[in-house]
Amino acid sequence: MSSARAFHSPRQKIHHRDRGCGAGLILSPDELRAGTGGKDLCPECAELARAKNGGLFEPAFLESRQIAT
Description:
Number of helices: 3
Radius of gyration: 11 Å
Shape: elongated
Low-confidence stretches: 60-69
């Protein structure tokens, strides 16, 4: 599982930042869009980030660790 640049789908109300997120994994490649789409962060992605960062969720830290999707 790894951090990723923010991505979203027009059919979801959230955006994702983790390639291991179950809600993000169900999206087909043709419906993926780059960026947040102005949507809130997926709760599962936030939890994965907290687990990877010792219980802390730091959006700026995630941005510094971005990798291409």
